[in-house]
Design brief:
By secondary structure, the chain is of the alpha+beta class. Helix content is about 30%, strand content about 20%. The chain folds into three domains: about 1-250, Gnk2 domain, C-X8-C-X2-C motif (Killer Toxin P4, Chain A, 2-Layer Sandwich); about 255-360, Phosphorylase Kinase, domain 1 (2-Layer Sandwich), CATH 3.30.200; about 365-590, Transferase(Phosphotransferase) domain 1 (Transferase(Phosphotransferase), domain 1, Orthogonal Bundle). The protein contains 16 helices and 24 strands. About 45% of the residues are buried.
Length: about 600
C-alpha cells in the first residue's frame, strides 16, 4: 500500500508491503515492528527503508512509485554448498526463470513460489516478488536482473537472496514459505476492489539491520511517512501513522554499545532508556511486577506511557558474570532479527544500574506451561508441534541464515518465550558465541549452561559447535512431546532421554506416548513419533551423526523423507559429569536383571 502526505517541498511518500504468503496477523506484527524500528533507527531521515523477512517499509521525499529500481542491491547467502552443485544449479536457473515470468505476468500480486526436486531427498524452494506498484514489464525486468546476479553471490550455495528496492528473489533447500498461502496468492485476481485501494511496494538497500533486513538512509528531515500493510483497513493505516509520528517527534536517545569478547559493535545502536522511565514503567521494580530471576538478575514486567508492555532485565549488582553476559547479549542481538528470536528494544546504563529492555511476551517461558500440572492443558498438540518447528526455524537462522554463525549454548525450555499465539521465541543470548562463516567449532575452558541439555563433547571437553545446539534442541523436542522434564534427577530414576531410548530400543514405541498430557487435544501419533525420532537423532552421542538444523526442519515438515535409525544417545548422569555407554546405562538403570535386546522400533 502506498501513501502520500504533506505539501511540496515537504511532501513525503510512504510504502509498505508484506510477502504475499504471509498471514494478515503476521503481516501486521511485522509492520508494527518495522514502524518502531524505522522511528528509532532512522529518525528524521528523508529517505529510509527497512526490509525484514516478511515485510518492508520505505519512505522518501520524492515519489518513487511505479519505477523499477535496481540501483542498489543486497545479497544474503547460505554458507553451505549444495551437495550436487552442477545438478543443483542446472535446476535452479529454470526454476527461478519460471518464477520470474509467473510473478510478472501470471500473478495478481506479482509473486510466485515453487519447488524443484534435486533428488528424492533434496529439493529447491524458490520465490520471486515485485513491489505491487510496478507494471508487468518493469517487474519482469527487475526480476530478470535479480536472477542474473545469482552467480555473483550464491553460485553453488544451498540458498541465497538478491534484493533490489523494487523486487527480490530467494531460494533455499528447506521450505521458507507457506505453500498453501503461496498458491492462493498466485491465483487469478478477485473482482476489482473499490476505487482508492492502494498497491503494495517492496524494496531493500544497504547498511544491514541486525540479522534479517537492511536499512539505507540519507540525511535530512521528513515531516511524516505513513506506511501500512497490504490489509485494506484504513484504521490500521491511521494507527500506524499516529504511532510513527509520535516516535519521530519524540525520538529516544541512542547510544553506541561497547564491545564484548572482542566483538566490535561500535556502529550498532539501541534505544537508551532513562532510568526514571523504566522505574516508572515497573513501579520502581516492585515485587508485584517481577517475572522471574536468573543468573543475570531479576526480570520485571513494565508498561510505557504509550501502553507498550516491556520486560526489563536488571543486572544484579553482585553478579560480575552477569555483566559480561549482558554485554554479550547486546553484541549478539545487535546482529539478529527473526520472528522466532526475542527482540531487544534497548538498554539503560545509569546510576550504577545496567538494564536490558525486551518486548514483553504474554505467556512467559515455555517451562512455566509445559511442566506445570495446572497449565499443561493450554498446550494442545498443535501448539506443541508449532513450538517445536518454530524453535527449529530460529536455530536455522542462527546457524545458517544470519550474517555470522551463532551458537546459543544454553537452549532449554526456560529460555523459550511464548507470544499470545504460542509462537516460540528463543531468548537469553548471554552465553552465545559468534563465528565467522568459515569457522564452525570452538573450545572453552569455561563450561557454562544447564546440565541435561548439554552435549557431552561440551560438558566434558568444552568443545561446542552448531551440533551442540542440535543436541539441546533434541532434548527440548523430547520434553515438549512428552511434557516431562529431562531432570537428570534422583539417584534411582532415569532421565527422560534414557527412558525414551530404552523404550525405543525395545520397540515399545506406543508407550512413548503414554506420558503425553491427556489434555493435549488433537493428538497425532504419527507426528508425535516422528518428533521423537527426530529428537533421538539430535541427541546421538557422536556429533557427526546428528543432523544439522536445516535437515531437522525438513524432516519435521516432510513425511515423505525416510529418517535414519538413531544410534545411542549420550547420557549425562547427575552423580558425575560423564557419559555412560549404552551397556553401562542398562546396568545402572535396569529395572530387573533381564537382558536387553537391540530391537528396531515398530
Amino acid at each position: 500500500m502506498t501513501n502520500t502526505t504533506g505539501a511540496a517541498p515537504d511532501r513525503a511518500y510512504g510504502l509498505a508491503q508484506c510477502r504475499a504468503d504471509v498471514t494478515a496477523s503476521d503481516c501486521l506484527t511485522c509492520l508494527n515492528t518495522t514502524v518502531q524500528d524505522m522511528a528509532s533507527l532512522c529518525p528524521g531521515q528523508k529517505n529510509a527503508m527497512i526490509y525484514y523477512e516478511e515485510c518492508l517499509l520505505r519512505h522518501a521525499n520524492a515519489s518513487f512509485f511505479g519505477v523499477a529500481d535496481t540501483s542498489s542491491v543486497k545479497y544474503w547467502w547460505n554458507p553451505q554448498n549444495a551437495t550436487q552443485p552442477e545438478r543443483f544449479m542446472s535446476l535452479l536457473g529454470p526454476l527461478m526463470g519460471n518464477l520470474t515470468e509467473r510473478a510478472a505476468y501470471a500473478s495478481p500480486r506479482l509473486f510466485a513460489a515453487d519447488t524443484a526436486d534435486v533428488s528424492s531427498f533434496d529439493r529447491i524452494y524458490g520465490m520471486a516478488q515485485c513491489t505491487r506498484d510496478l507494471d508487468n514489464d518493469d517487474c519482469n525486468s527487475c526480476l530478470v536482473i535479480a536472477v542474473s546476479r545469482i552467480p555473483t553471490c550464491c553460485d553453488g550455495k544451498q540458498g541465497g537472496r538478491v534484493i533490489f528496492p523494487t523486487c527480490f528473489i530467494r531460494f533455499e533447500v528447506y521450505p521458507f514459505f507457506n505453500s498453501q498461502a503461496a498458491e492462493a496468492a498466485m491465483s487469478p485476481a478477485p473482482p476489482p476492489a473499490p476505487a482508492g485501494a492502494g498497491a503494495g511496494v517492496n524494496g531493500s538497500a544497504d547498511n544491514s539491520t541486525p540479522g534479517a533486513g537492511s536499512i539505507r538512509a540519507s540525511n535530512g528531515s521528513v515531516k511524516t511517512a505513513l506506511l501500512a500493510a497490504s490489509i485494506p483497513v484504513a484504521a490500521v493505516l491511521l494507527g500506524i501513522a499516529f504511532y510513527l509520528c509520535k516516535r519521530i517527534k519524540k525520538p529516544h536517545k541512542h547510544v553506541p554499545i561497547a564491545s564484548a569478547d572482542g566483538q566490535d559493535i561500535a556502529s550498532s545502536e539501541y534505544v537508551l532508556y532513562d532510568l526514571s522511565t523504566l522505574r516508572a514503567a515497573t513501579d520502581n521494580f516492585s515485587e508485584d511486577n517481577k517475572l522471574g530471576e536468573g543468573g543475570f538478575g531479576p526480570v520485571y514486567k513494565g508498561a510505557m506511557e504509550d501502553g507498550q508492555e516491556i520486560a526489563v532485565k536488571r543486572l544484579s549488582k553482585t553478579s560480575q558474570q552477569g555483566h559480561l553476559e549482558m554485554k554479550n547479549e547486546v553484541v549478539v542481538l545487535a546482529k539478529l532479527h527473526h520472528k522466532n528470536l526475542v527482540r531487544l528494544l534497548g538498554c539503560c546504563i545509569e546510576e550504577g544500574e545496567e538494564l536490558l529492555v525486551y518486548e514483553f511476551l504474554y505467556n512467559k517461558s515455555l517451562d512455566k506451561i509445559l511442566f506445570h500440572p495446572s497449565r499443561q492443558q493450554e498446550l494442545s498438540w498443535g501448539n506443541r508441534y508449532k513450538i517445536i518447528r518454530g524453535i527449529g526455524r530460529g536455530l536455522v537462522y542462527l546457524h545458517e541464515d544470519s550474517r555470522l554463525t551463532i551458537i546459543h549454548r544454553d537452549l532449554k525450555a526456560s529460555n523459550i518465550l511464548l507470544d499470545p499465539d504460542m509462537n516460540p521465541k528463543i531468548s537469553d543470548f548471554g552465553l552465545a558465541k559468534l563465528f565467522d562463516i568459515d569457522v564452525s567449532v570452538g573450545n572453552t575452558s569455561r563450561i557454562a549452561g544447564t546440565y541435561g541439555y548439554m552435549a557431552p563433547e561440551y560438558a566434558l571437553h568444552g568443545i561446542f559447535s552448531a551440533k551442540s545446539d542440535v543436541f539441546s534442541y533434541g532434548v527440548l523436542v523430547l520434553e515438549i512431546v512428552t511434557g516431562r522434564r529431562n531432570a537428570c534427577g534422583g539417584q534411582r530414576s532415569e532421565d527422560l532421554v534414557a527412558s525414551i531410548w530404552r523404550q525405543w530400543r525395545r520397540g515399545s514405541v506406543s508407550r512413548l506416548l503414554d506420558c503425553c498430557s491427556a489434555s493435549a487435544d488433537g493428538l497425532q501419533p504419527q507426528e508425535m513419533l516422528r518428533c521423537i525420532h527426530v529428537g533421538l537423532l539430535c541427541v546421538q552421542e557422536d556429533p557427526q551423526l546428528r543432523p544439522g538444523m536445516e535437515a531437522v526442519v525438513i524432516m519435521l515438515n516432510s513425511r515423505s523423507i525416510t529418517l535414519p535409525a538413531p544410534t545411542a544417545p549420550a547420557f549425562i548422569l547427575p552423580t558425575r559429569v560423564g557419559a555412560t555407554t549404552p551397556a553401562e546405562l542398562d546396568r545402572v538403570l535396569s529395572i530387573d536383571d533381564a537382558s536387553v535386546s537391540d530391537l528396531e522400533p515398530r
